[in-house]
Amino acid sequence: MGFMIVLLMAVYAVIGGLTTLYLFFSFPAVIIWKFYRKLKYGISVFN
Questions:
Q1: Could you give the CA distance from residue 39 to residue 5 in angstroms, rounded to a whole number?
Q2: How many domains in the chain?
Q3: How distant, in Å, are the alpha carbons of 1, 14, 41 from that of 25?
């Protein structure tokens, strides 16, 4: 029983870590992409 709990905790830790990494890299990428479009094409940052 203890092994299953440790295994489940490890799986949840990996899932949480991947989600955190995705958010860590995607938010700045979207912001940079919006400013790039603003500078190059004149599209609104809020669009």
A1: 51
A2: 1
A3: 37, 17, 24
Range of the domain at 23: 1-47
* Token reading at 34: 């919006």
Cα 31 to Cα 42: distance, rounded to the nearest angstrom: 15
Helix (H) or strand (E) holding 4: helix 2-41
Short-list 24, 44, 21, CA closest to 34: 44
pLDDT digits (tens, 9 = 90+) for 1-47: 899 999 999 999 999 999 999 999 999 999 999 999 999 999 999 97
Q: In angstroms, rounded to a whole number, what is the distance separating the alpha carbons of residues 8 and 5?
A: 5
Give the type of residue at 19. Answer: T
